[in-house]
């Protein structure tokens, strides 16, 4: 495991959980989340990042449940950048399609820290290419196919929902899959590309935006919604994963190691190399979550203590006082005064 695994926003799941639930039932969806090591509430977390290997396992479990090795194509029919919050809003508010593609390239680092988007313009057509950093997982096949959905959703916003690319490319190295993709999409495809791509006629790049936003989204809005980008180091990555679990349950080092596709011992050693340990990172995440619950909800202190995994309310109160310098109820009262 490298210091920090390749990370992507949780919104990359898009409407996949709903599609899986509708097609195969809630039990299959729950199994997909368990296989990936993701909390089931993950689909609703805006601005959170998850390891790409977990996303890959989630999609692979869905394909296995469906018994369809091209299940990603079915997901692609439902996936769109409109599900990416301010990230997608900023892209789709561009003046024309060409500008939208460039916006997507410019802010890709806020969607995923190691994935790339590229625009390659030829004499007649332009290749809009997406390269997923984590290709080692068994679910990469589904990721490569599903990525066609968000890619095509951008031209369709400007050119209409019936728009089709001149061709598509998918990094599968499978001629049979290419023929099946062509049959399903009814357009030419190649499977020996080194990325997922769509071919856009250059004349379409000038297609103007059919919508005028009521409010405009800035790149600063995108940065805020994405918390400035993926976690920059291992400790912040682990803290982010613990925080996501704390919304519904307590996270163990085994849980976090699993979602990061590493061993417990390796994770602890890596944290030690960074001058910390899992217990310290978890304590910090608990206090951050406690602060959010105290200032953003009317949840009682005892309920917060229970949700964060403390054995007693007094144990939580002592830990909070040690961290913040005051008791939880005092902290909540002081915060309320600042709002008056």
Could you describe the 3D structure shown?
With 340 residues, the chain is α+β, with helices and mostly antiparallel strands. It folds into two domains: 7-225, H-NOX domain (Alpha-Beta Complex); 234-338, Arc Repressor Mutant, subunit A. Helix content is 52%, strand content 11%. The protein is built from 18 helices and seven strands. The strands form two sheets. The chain has a five-stranded mixed beta sheet with strand order 3-4-7-5-6, with helices on one face. It has a two-stranded antiparallel ribbon with strand order 1-2. Helix 10 (175-185) links the parallel strand 5 and strand 6 (188-190). Helix 5 packs antiparallel against helix 6 (97-106). The protein is globular and about 70 Å long.
Topology:
Layout: E1 7-9, H1 16-24, H2 26-36, E2 49-51, H3 52-66, H4 71-76, H5 86-92, H6 97-106, H7 108-111, E3 116-121, E4 125-131, H8 140-146, H9 148-159, E5 167-171, H10 175-185, E6 188-190, E7 192-201, H11 219-225, H12 234-246, H13 253-259, H14 264-273, H15 278-296, H16 301-307, H17 313-324, H18 328-338
Parallel strand pairs: 5-6
Antiparallel strand pairs: 1-2, 3-4, 4-7, 5-7
Helix pairs in contact: 1-2, 2-3, 3-8, 5-6, 12-15, 13-14, 16-17
Strand content: 5-15%
**Which bin fits the share of residues in helices?**
40-55%
Described by the principal axes of the CA atoms, the overall outline is: globular
Low-confidence runs: none
Mean pLDDT: 90
CATH architecture annotation name of the largest domain: Alpha-Beta Complex
Structural class: alpha+beta
Query: If you consult CATH, what is the topology of the largest domain?
Result: H-NOX domain
Overall radius of gyration: 22 Å
The CATH class of the largest domain turns out to be Alpha Beta
Strand element count:
7
The N- to C-terminal Cα distance equals 49 Å
Following the backbone from N to C, one meets helices and strands in this order, namely EHHEHHHHHEEHHEHEEHHHHHHHH
Q: Note the main sheet.
A: 5 strands, mixed
Number of domains: 2
Query: How many helices in DSSP terms?
Result: 18
Tell me the name of the CATH homologous superfamily of the largest domain.
H-NOX domain
The main sheet orders its strands as 3-4-7-5-6
């Amino acid at each position: 495991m490298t210091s920090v695994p390749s990370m992507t926003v949780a919104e990359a799941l898009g409407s996949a959980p709903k599609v899986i639930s509708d097609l195969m039932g809630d039990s299959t969806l729950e199994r997909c989340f368990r296989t990936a090591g993701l909390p089931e509430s993950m689909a609703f977390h805006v601005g959170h990042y998850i390891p790409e290997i977990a996303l890959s396992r989630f999609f692979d479990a869905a394909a296995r449940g469906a018994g369809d090795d091209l299940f990603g194509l079915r997901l692609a029919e439902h996936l769109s950048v409109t599900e990416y919050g301010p990230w997608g809003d900023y892209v789709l508010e561009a003046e024309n399609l060409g500008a939208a593609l460039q916006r997507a390239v410019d802010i890709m680092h806020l969607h995923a820290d190691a994935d790339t988007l590229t625009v390659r313009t030829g004499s007649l057509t332009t290749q809009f290419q997406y390269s997923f950093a984590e290709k080692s997982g068994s679910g990469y096949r589904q990721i490569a196919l599903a990525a066609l959905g968000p890619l095509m959703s951008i031209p369709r916003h400007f050119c209409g929902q019936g728009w089709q690319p001149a061709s598509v490319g998918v990094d599968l190295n499978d001629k049979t899959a290419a023929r099946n993709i062509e049959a399903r999409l009814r357009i030419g495809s190649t499977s020996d590309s080194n990325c997922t791509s769509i071919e856009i006629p250059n004349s379409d790049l000038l297609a103007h935006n059919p919508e005028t936003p009521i409010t405009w989204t800035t790149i600063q809005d995108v940065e805020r919604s994405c918390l400035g980008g993926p976690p920059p180091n291992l400790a912040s990555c682990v803290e982010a994963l613990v925080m996501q679990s704390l919304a519904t349950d307590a996270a163990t080092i085994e849980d976090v190691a699993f979602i990061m596709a590493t061993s417990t011992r390796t994770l602890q050693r890596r944290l030690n190399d960074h001058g910390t340990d899992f217990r310290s990172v978890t304590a910090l995440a608990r206090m951050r979550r406690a602060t959010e619950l105290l200032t953003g909800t009317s949840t009682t202190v005892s309920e917060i203590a229970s949700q964060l995994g403390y054995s007693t309310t007094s144990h939580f109160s002592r830990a909070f006082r040690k961290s913040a310098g005051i008791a939880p109820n005092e902290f909540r009262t002081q915060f309320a005064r600042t709002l008056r």
